[in-house]
């Protein structure tokens, strides 16, 4: 019997292999990441304070996007078989440049599971009920389109439910199950209806990415790096054009906090379209990309308040020291960040996402912003709405860090 975490590790590795075939620059990114991590670990005796090199090397997060509550519920059932549960609620409609989705992250929640393999998937659902983005007429047509498609074979979801209940699967069953789960996220070669794609694109490139085709796919898969500044420079030297910024906290001399991310620009990928006259044509679209991230210590709500204040400054690096001390000992003493049993040598790694960075990541890969009409949000989307949609609780990240902080480091 293979336990849940082994299935999760195989799922992450399977998606990574598939994504490397689909997006060749991802392989370059993995190679450079491995080099940077290796060199960083050789130079820094404390390199493993935020996770073993074994964990960090295998560590990925994925991003997927689905269309409806029913599709999201299937994703929740599928991921539960891998020990990945919904944590946090992100409403990217609130962002400076709004994206018509609401999201959660599926990931392991307890210390042992995280240490074994922390694979997480940022999962977004199209905010179809939000009339600021979708007219009544368009909403009905998108709904009809989504009702006709099937992202996951019902047999796969049924099997996921029984694996989740059993806590694992025997080796043969595991292999087919993981293979089919990975395949469900492959980029489809089915022709896309061009006029439908264009109509959705006028609302949002994300809407077109989600609801123009019969399947879903990995939008990106992100490795973890121990020195993101070094990686950034090195990718540029490899001739890969990175976006012009590293999202999240600035580089500082003190303890790394939360999450820093950067990416390279969406690749122009060929897709097949069915044109108005019925002919097929190959055209390129730019919705997928490569992202990389560095993770730091999780901040308490008090620390998060400081973070938000620092980030509101025109140059956060300049004012960082006004908000954060320069050692883990002070961070722990002032209760700004989470440490196992308050021990500053045992930081708790941030396992989640940052809404502002997420919106920035979405946005840096779109050719055009979404247009939201003025008006009130009557969609009713909230964290508890989402919990109802997936039929399970959405974990509160702070409550999880709080629990971890009462435990000894594993
Ligand atoms: C997800 C964007 C969020 C991150 O790393 O913040 C994300 C998406 O583009 O679908 O992946
Ligand atoms: Ni991402």
TrEMBL record:
Question: Which lineage do the record's taxonomy fields give for this organism?
Answer: Bacteria, Bacillati, Actinomycetota, Actinomycetes, Mycobacteriales
The similarity comment for this entry is:
Belongs to the 2-oxoadipate dioxygenase/decarboxylase family.
Q: Give the enzyme's main class according to its UniProt record, as a single word.
A: oxidoreductase
Q: What is its EC number?
A: 1.13.11.93
User: By its UniProt entry, which InterPro entries does this protein fall under?
Assistant: HGLS, YdcJ_bac-like
Which PANTHER family does the entry link to? 2-OXOADIPATE DIOXYGENASE_DECARBOXYLASE, PTHR39479
Protein keywords:
Dioxygenase, Iron, Oxidoreductase
Query: Residue span of the signal peptide, if any?
Result: none
Superkingdom of this protein's organism: Bacteria
- Cofactors that this protein relies on: Fe(2+)
- Molecular function via GO: dioxygenase activity
Q: What is this protein called?
A: 2-oxoadipate dioxygenase/decarboxylase
């Amino acid at each position: 019997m293979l336990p849940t975490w082994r299935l999760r590790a195989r799922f992450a590795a399977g998606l990574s292999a598939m994504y490397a075939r689909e997006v060749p620059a991802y392989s370059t990114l993995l190679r450079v990441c491995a080099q940077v991590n290796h060199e960083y670990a050789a130079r820094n005796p404390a390199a493993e304070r935020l996770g073993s090199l074994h964990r960090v090397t295998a560590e990925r997060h994925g991003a997927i996007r689905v269309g409806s509550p029913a599709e999201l519920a299937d994703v929740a059932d599928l991921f539960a078989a891998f020990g990945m549960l919904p944590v946090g609620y992100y409403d990217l409609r609130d962002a400076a440049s709004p994206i018509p989705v609401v999201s959660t992250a599926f990931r392991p929640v307890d210390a042992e599971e995280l240490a074994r393999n922390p694979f997480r998937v940022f999962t977004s659902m199209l905010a179809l009920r939000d009339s600021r983005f979708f007219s009544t007429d368009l909403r009905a047509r998108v709904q009809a389109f989504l009702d006709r498609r099937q992202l996951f074979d019902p047999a796969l979801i049924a099997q996921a439910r029984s694996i989740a209940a059993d806590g694992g699967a025997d080796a043969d069953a595991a292999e087919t199950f993981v293979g089919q789960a990975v395949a469900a996220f492959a980029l489809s070669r089915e022709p896309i209806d061009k006029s439908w794609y264009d109509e959705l694109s006028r609302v949002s490139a994300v809407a077109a990415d989600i609801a123009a085709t019969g399947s879903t796919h990995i939008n990106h898969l992100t490795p973890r790096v121990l020195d993101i500044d070094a990686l950034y420079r090195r990718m540029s030297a490899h001739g890969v054009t990175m976006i012009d910024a590293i999202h999240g906290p600035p580089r500082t001399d003190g303890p790394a906090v939360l999450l820093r991310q950067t990416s390279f620009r969406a690749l122009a990928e060929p897709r097949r379209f069915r044109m108005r006259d019925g002919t097929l044509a190959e055209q390129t679209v730019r919705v997928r990309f490569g992202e990389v991230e560095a993770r730091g210590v999780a901040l308490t709500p008090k620390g998060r308040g400081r973070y938000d204040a620092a980030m509101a400054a025109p140059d956060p690096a300049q004012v960082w020291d006004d908000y954060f001390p320069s050692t883990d000992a002070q961070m722990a003493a002032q209760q700004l960040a989470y440490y196992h049993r308050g021990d500053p040598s045992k930081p708790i790694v941030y396992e989640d996402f940052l809404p502002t960075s997420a919106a920035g990541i979405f946005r840096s890969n779109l050719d055009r912003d979404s247009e939201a009409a003025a008006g009130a949000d009557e969609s009713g989307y909230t964290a508890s709405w989402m919990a109802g949609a997936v039929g399970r609780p959405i974990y509160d990240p702070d409550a999880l860090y709080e629990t971890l902080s009462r435990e000894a480091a594993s």
